[in-house]
Design goal:
binds magnesium ion; 14 helices; nine-stranded mixed sheet; binds adenosine-5'-triphosphate; Rossmann fold; elongated; alpha/beta; VC0802-like; six-stranded mixed sheet; 2 domains
Length: 395
């Protein structure tokens, strides 16, 4: 019955030039989301609205795809008809109600809007006249102007838009409207959620993953690629840098106090992530840290990690409990993958009693033991990193 979807977005927040950028990005993300769905789709902007025209498609699949596009507030399956006079409009509206609501024992209200001012009837007249015709056609229908079961929207535009269903979208801002950030993506539960959260604010993401072969396996790496793909359903294509961290970790393990291993390791991860961030024109780093979750995420530990960064570090989960993070992880279909039991580079070289209140001076002094050798190892790690472009719909 529906050949088109009307896409509603938060129009109030965007004015002037920004509106154009917002809409362009939204159209781009809608096309990206629909690329994996069966059917033919045309996404177009018309007079401050976005329409998706669809052919040979599956209704649920389209809604599922659009539910991943940030910036969409509502999705309305819509019938578009030519303006061929009032009688034709009555016919179209009646046919719409007949098909959309086989059971007529419901209340309704017509909500007409005359966006094209040369239309001979105003919205009040349309509400009354169409309401009357519907009551005549379907005696079981009743009018309820306060809480109708069916809010029948009839908008007189270039074409006439008839719709009554609005499926909520994910909200947020279209990816690409707020710059780019570098996500430190591990195989855990938190960092994919952090990537999702930052993308929701319109930020495009690239990612960096540190592995430690042969201590971590090919399957552990594949799991991170899979997680990147899950995040990319929302965030768009992700350039994933895979860094071999083994030599750096071994060096730290050999030279530094074991209680400080995790903090020092984190600091090197941040430094290397920042290198790639600058290369990819990212405006910040993103991690899945949340205050107090583990020893390396106390306020003191976060401060010590942060001290090596010159870019801002965004931690979208900072105030979340694990339970809240898991809820989002499940919602975005990442959880099942995140909990696969593969080894992580951080869990292999972990101390029994890590410092929970590291002192920055002490940490810096410990790092001096790494000498100049560590710079060469960092350089090699950067140079030998493998970069893959991960997109939704593959694999
Ligand atoms: P996650 O579930 O995201 O792994 P976590 O609770 O296991 O988080 P940590 O292992 O302390 O927490 O890691 C904190 C953050 O550091 C992660 O959220 C991630 O952003 C980053 N990080 C940790 N390990 C790696 C890694 N191997 N590669 C890239 N980033 C990592
Ligand atoms: Mg982890």
């Amino acid at each position: 019955m529906y050949k088109s979807f009307l896409i509603k977005y938060g129009e109030i927040a965007i004015k002037g030039k920004n509106r154009y950028l917002f809409e362009e990005a939204l159209v781009r993300q809608i096309r990206y989301a629909l690329a994996g769905a069966d059917g033919t789709f045309e996404v177009r902007r018309l007079q401050g609205r976005i329409y998706v025209d669809a052919k040979d498609y599956d209704y649920d699949e389209v809604l599922e795809a659009l539910s991943h596009v940030f910036g969409i507030v509502g999705i309305c399956p819509v019938v578009l008809t030519e303006d061929a006079g009032f009688d034709a409009l009555v016919r179209d509206v009646t046919a719409y109600v007949d098909q959309a609501y086989p059971d007529k024992n419901r209340t309704f209200k017509v909500h007409a809007r005359r966006a094209r001012k040369n239309y001979p009837m105003d919205s009040m007249e349309l509400n009354a006249a169409l309401g009357e015709k519907l009551l005549e056609a379907f005696p079981k229908l009743r009018v309820d102007v306060h809480h109708p079961d069916i809010l029948l929207c009839v908008e007189i535009r270039e074409k006439i838009n008839i719709y009554s269903v609005e499926i909520p979208g994910p909200g947020g801002m279209p990816v690409g409207t707020n710059g780019r950030a570098m996500l430190l993506l591990s195989g855990g539960i938190d960092s994919p959620v952090a990537g999702y959260m930052i993308a929701k604010r319109g930020v495009a993401i690239d990612a960096v993953y540190f592995h430690a072969p042969p201590y971590t396996s090919e399957r552990a790496k594949q799991k991170v690629v899979d997680l990147a793909r899950i995040v990319s359903r929302y965030a768009g294509p992700i350039r994933l840098h895979i860094v071999n961290f083994t030599e750096i970790q071994l060096q730290i393990y050999e030279k530094c106090p074991h209680a400080e291993l995790t903090i020092i390791m984190r600091r090197y991860m941040m430094k290397i992530a920042e290198h790639f961030a600058k290369e990819d024109h990212c405006l910040g780093l993103v991690t899945g840290e949340s205050i107090g979750q583990v020893a390396s995420q106390t306020m003191q530990s976060l401060a010590a990690t942060n001290a090596v960064c010159t870019l801002p570090v965004y931690r979208p989960l900072i105030g979340f409990d694990k339970k809240e993070i898991i809820d989002i992880s499940e919602k975005i279909d990442a959880y099942e993958t995140s909990i696969l039991p593969f080894e992580d580079c951080c869990t292999i070289f972990v101390a029994k009693h890590p410092v929970t209140k590291p002192n920055l001076r002490v940490i810096e002094r410990s790092e001096q033991r790494l000498g100049e050798a560590i710079d060469a190892l960092v350089k090699t790690a950067v140079e030998t990193a493998e970069t893959v472009c991960v997109e939704a719909g593959e694999g």
